[in-house]
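Field reference: sequence -> structure
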Amino acid sequence: MTLDAADFAAVRLTLELATVVTLLLLAIGTPVAWWLARTRSRLRHAVGAVVALPLVLPPTVIGFYLLLLLGPNGPVGKLTEALGIGLLPFSFGGLVLASVCYSLPFVVQPLQNAFEAIGTRPLEVAATLRASPWDTFWSVAVPLARPGFLSGAVLGFAHTVGEFGVVLMIGGNIPDKTRVVSVQIYDHVEALEYAQAHWLAGGMLAFSFIVLLALYTLYPQTMKGRR
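Structure field:
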């Protein structure tokens, strides 16, 4: 038994979701990681703890509170309805928001480690050459932190591909709209369609192994910093 049209639709939607989420995670996670790596604020540990919460919280807890926030009685839900966007739960936009919240530490932590590894010397040298903070960041910090950007992007993408609890609670199980690969596997198992579940699950297993093997091979020091 091979994959059917519904399986391929779930794969396509998963890849679209992971691509959009990864781009947003890099855009959001970069300034957060830079601030955490450079600041001496007393709020540093509190912000770091908030960012890392998805690492220890069950996905259903995150999904539950996101439903409350995004629902018709939640503050975000009321705002999106007032703006004419509509409610985000059970939509692709809701999946994106939930995935960004759930995968944020997988991008922020590699970036933070990379920024901290740069040290202050290269930045001080750039400052003595009259480089502005903006120029210093893009010309010095970003190139030196390239392994962290690559690790964060790959881990964020891979983690989004493998999400289940959060996307099920926020997106439900709507074909061609919110049914991603992990939910499709669950549906096959419930229907005792083990052959199709095996094809999808085996594909995800191979994908995850290749991603981790590549990261450990190309950037072993970066991955050690995550343990």
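Note: The CA atoms of residues 67 and 90 lie 10 Å apart.
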